[in-house]
């Protein structure tokens, strides 16, 4: 399938998944199919671009995250970006009396496009899910919501990672059937593109420090995970571990 036509199908599926009044099972089915097609789009686009005579360079994009919970939105963006082959630098800058959070994305243009598309949809779904949650009466609501959003982001990262891996395996099987047996493997193509992304990142941020991990004490992690995964996989009821909001951080 033409990669651009496939992306059009993804947009329609995500729009249907966000429709009000939709049964939860149908919403999940649309989202699962969209994740599969987004992964397929990324692989197909990579193979098309790498077969062209001219080598495609890595790109970058700055995304400003609005309050409230801007830092938690960066975490969700990182959970989408990493499985899709992108790198993210979390930036903080003082604006008046507050802090502005932004994310500098690095990746191949087609992958950044995928990240933008899915992140926009997931941000809406996350907001809808969080709006109907009621924090325990004795608990700080902001702590509960932050842990809920962390659980949601974790489920997203795991689900997308599985979808991307499955897409790579399907593409490799297709290459073996249709292409020259001595042609480059899908893994080699993706590894070469990943190197270009890393080189571009290093050229812009030659000195990145490891971001400080977040320890979240709210009890919303399990509910957020179920909202992101649509299945309870036995996640603990409290997110107390290390939650890293981004791959790199620059203040």
Produce a short descriptive summary.
Helices cover 57% and strands 13% of the residues.
Defining key terms:
251 residues; alpha+beta; four-stranded mixed sheet; two-stranded antiparallel sheet; 7 helices; 6 strands; globular
How many helices? 7
What is the beta-strand fraction? 5-15%
What's the order of the H and E elements?
HHEHEEHHHEHEE
- Described by the principal axes of the CA atoms, the overall outline is globular
Give a structural overview:
Strand 2 and strand 3 (98-107) form a beta hairpin. This protein has one domain. With 251 residues, the chain is an alpha+beta fold. It has helices at residues 3-17, 24-51, 70-81, 109-131, 141-178, 186-204, 221-229; strands at 59-65, 87-95, 98-107, 214-215, 242-243, 248-250. The strands form two sheets. It has a four-stranded mixed sheet with strand order 1-3-2-6. It has a two-stranded antiparallel sheet with strand order 4-5.
Itemize the secondary structure elements and their pairings.
Elements (H helix, E strand, L loop, with lengths): L2 H15 L6 H28 L7 E7 L4 H12 L5 E9 L2 E10 L1 H23 L9 H38 L7 H19 L9 E2 L5 H9 L12 E2 L4 E3 L1
Parallel strand pairs: 2-6
Antiparallel strand pairs: 1-3, 2-3, 4-5
């Amino acid at each position: 399938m033409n990669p651009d036509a496939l992306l059009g199908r993804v947009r329609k599926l995500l729009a249907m998944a966000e429709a009000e009044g939709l049964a939860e099972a149908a919403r999940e089915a649309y989202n699962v199919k969209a994740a599969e097609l987004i992964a397929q789009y990324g692989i197909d686009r990579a193979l098309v671009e790498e077969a062209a005579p001219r080598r495609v360079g890595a790109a970058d994009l700055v995304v400003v995250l609005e309050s409230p919970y801007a830092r938690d939105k960066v975490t969700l963006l990182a959970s989408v970006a990493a499985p899709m082959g992108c790198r993210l630098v979390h930036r903080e800058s003082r604006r008046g009396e507050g802090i502005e959070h932004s994310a500098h994305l690095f990746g191949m243009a087609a992958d950044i496009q995928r990240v933008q598309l899915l992140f926009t949809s997931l941000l809406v779904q996350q907001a809808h899910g969080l709006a109907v949650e009621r924090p325990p009466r004795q608990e700080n609501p902001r702590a509960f919501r932050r842990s809920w959003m962390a659980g949601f982001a974790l489920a997203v990262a795991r689900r997308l990672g599985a979808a991307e891996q499955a897409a790579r395996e399907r593409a490799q099987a297709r290459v073996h059937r249709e292409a020259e047996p001595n042609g480059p493997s899908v893994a080699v193509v993706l590894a070469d593109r990943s190197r270009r992304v890393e080189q571009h990142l290093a050229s812009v941020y030659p000195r990145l420090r490891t971001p400080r991990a977040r320890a979240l004490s709210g009890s919303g992690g399990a509910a957020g995970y179920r909202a992101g995964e649509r299945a309870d996989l036995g996640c603990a009821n409290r997110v107390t571990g290390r939650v890293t909001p981004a791959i790199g951080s620059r203040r």
